[in-house]
Amino acid sequence: MIKETEIELTLSNYKLKFSTDQLAMRASGSVLIECNKTKILCVLSTAEIGEKQNTFLGVNFYERPSSSRDYGLGKKNKQSEREIIISRTVDRVIRSLLTGETDRLIQINCFLLHNDESCPLDFLCLNASLVLLYTYGLYNIEDKILAFNLNSISILDSKKTKEGITEENNKKNVDLSSFINKDKGRFLFVASKDGVYMLEGSAEEIPYSTLYESIIKEIELHSKTIEIFFDNLESKFLKNKKFKIKKEKNISHYEKIVKEFLLSKDSIIIDKKIPLIQNFNKITNKIKTFIEKKQEEKGGVLGTRPREEVFNNVINIIKNKVVIEEGTRLNGREYNNIRDLKIEKIENEKSNGEIMISAGLTHLILTLFKTSDQAEIHGGFNIVYSFFPCAGNEIGKINNPSRREIGHGKLATNAITSLLPEKIPTIKIYSDVFSSDGSSSMKTIIGSTVLLRMANIELKENCFGISLGLLQYGKKKQIILDIDQEEDNYGFADLKIGGTKNGICTVQLDVKQKPIEFKTLCKMILTAKTAILNIKKKVEVHIAPKKEGGYFDKNDPVNMVMTIDTTKVGLVIGVGGKTIKQLQATHGVRLQMKENKLIMVSDKAINAFLAQEQINKVVNSYVLLDNPLLGRVISVDEKNINIMVLNQRFELKKIKKYLPIAEDDYCFCQMLKKNDKIVLENILKK
Question: Residue 292, exposed/middle/buried by CB under 10 A (0-12, 13-18, 19+)?
């Protein structure tokens, strides 16, 4: 039985229940959302500031220690990674909607009261926050916006035909089960009937067109239900609405200023003889003068807004106008231009691979570390993204990771995860951004793919990333590729996609002020596909093919056993284990002695080889030849292969038998003792 103060809604196959004014009775407002036993309380806090402006303090998500089995003791000092990611996801959407003027500071806090893990928490938080804003009149009353969740359940299920969906539509069922499930990811998007406000998620190479079609069908499926839901909201929840804002959005206000500026004499004059950016610098000075005059006028169009805020918004609108009408970007690049990628390998013996990747003014170093232990895929791979203050020419401390850094790291991790083998070593990639002019998260995806292939981690497909921007002036729209920092600031939307030649692995869409029309989103996704195929051709020249012949590269992991003369075992261990510990620390290997068998595990063949040679010296060449030993190929010519093993050089003939083999390869060598002399009998493949 539903109470008068409660409303139910079935959305994306989840049964949701909303109620208002629960628990936080002294707050400005609250909405409680329930799905099965999961409950989240969304609380609105406000404070008067006198003059009207839009001051949003953000969204925070908190998990109470008792909300799940992970009970906490004592005071909770900082947010968990999941709390930070959910806070960032919800904040990005709400910030774009709060475009009206109020005379209040606004903050939203979401509290997880109980969690039975039956429903995605970001999906619940977003819907509770959207209902909260709608209920208390904090965004345009005409916008009916909700969050949707795409998962393994088919978008249109013929067995559960909803009212208003015909059998003909059911035949066009989009089955996502082969691309999205609990383990492989999902997609979350926020939309109204007019378009999409946000999209993010990951999957296992979902075809580019399938993602767009799925979004459309999800909206079609729920269109009637949503209308009924918002009618119920207005009848039950909006009776005592506390705040009012102007229905006219801020963007319209700034467009009025732009129109007035354009009517002024010689407002925009483009000199074709000089670069567009120099033309725009002159236009900028004119806009500054115009706004200063308007600010001085009593009752002018600026109202109470700060001059800097007005100037920035007006400049952004005019940038969109100029770039669209002139047919080129301010920096002279074409709309579909992708900056040249430079990838340089860095020699770093402490790691399993390191590269520097640069594009324009974006420069980052990526470093890979891995162990030889086999781990399940979900616990074994992570990308840590760090954006240092110097990357944006800023001053500040290098503290704990910000929401942005954690979010970008998760975005890059999700792009690669579904492409990894079933079992992998524990792998961690550090992406350190020292200079950024946009798209550093996408360069992280590209660099991570290169590093993994260099470390001989086989991916199902190579993954690459691209960022797109959407410019808009009036009814004119333009998509631009590989956006820089300035274009990210003045564009109306940015779309980041990490994918392969087959489909999308991860996506993140953010919009400003206005939703993206569904047709425009489709065009952006298909444009991203073309761009990723172009990047693939350029980057794959840096990815060495898998070594044939079965021999080891110096960075390949190696496990081996050395047999030591029983009388010399003590020399390897040392007093109190001092020698064996020193060998492990010096060469980065793991050693374990079982009777007279020394087991060695190494992340790199070169480290294992150096450790073996050092051990041979320690025991005065009392290494027995019961097991194959590791050798390094010194040279290969038409007749002979020269290999270094046990601090000696050996020659092997009949090289055709062992091809393809090359200098600096590592291989296991079968050694024998003949006439009191050690000889190389054979070399073995992996």
Answer: exposed
Question: ∠ CA(426), CA(413), CA(151), 5° rounding?
Answer: 115
What is the model's pLDDT at position 164?
A: 37
Sheet containing 597-602: order of strands: 589-594, 597-602, 558-564, 623-624
- Residue 286's CB: how many other CB atoms inside 10 A? 16
CA distance 307 to 327: 30
Please provide residue 181's backbone torsions phi and psi, each rounded to the nearest 5 degrees: -150, -175
What is the identity of the amino acid at 53?
Q
Q: How far apart are CA 279 and CA 268, in angstroms?
A: 9
Distances (CA, A) of 200 to 150, 375, 382, 417, 457: 10, 27, 19, 16, 27
Write out pLDDT tens, residues 380-397.
Answer: 899 999 998 888 887 877
- CATH class of the domain comprising 342-542: alpha beta
pTM across the whole model: 0.77
DSSP string, 433-465: EEE-SS-HHHHHHHHHHHHHHHTT---SS--EE
Strand pairing category for 381-387 and 423-435: parallel
Q: Which pLDDT value is given to residue 162?
A: 37
Residue 415's contacts (CB-CB under 8 Å, 6 or more residues apart) are 202, 445, 448, 463, 465, 498, 499, 505, 506
Q: Do domains 342-542 and 558-684 have the same CATH topology?
A: no
| Peptide bond between residue 425 and the one before it cis (omega within 30 degrees of 0) | no
3-state secondary structure of 338: coil
Alpha carbons 486 and 333: distance in angstroms, whole number: 13
C-alpha torsion sign, points 300, 301, 305, 308 = negative
Burial 136-145 (b: 16+ CB within 10 A, else e): bbbbbeebbb
Domain ranges across the chain? 6-240, 250-326, 342-542, 558-684
Q: Which CATH superfamily is domain 558-684 in?
A: K Homology domain, type 1 (3.30.1370.10)
Q: Does domain 6-240 have CATH number 3.30.230.70?
A: yes
- How far apart CA 145 and CA 123 sit, in angstroms, is 13
User: Residue 516 belongs to what H/E stretch?
Assistant: none
Cβ pair 515, 191 in contact under 8 A: yes
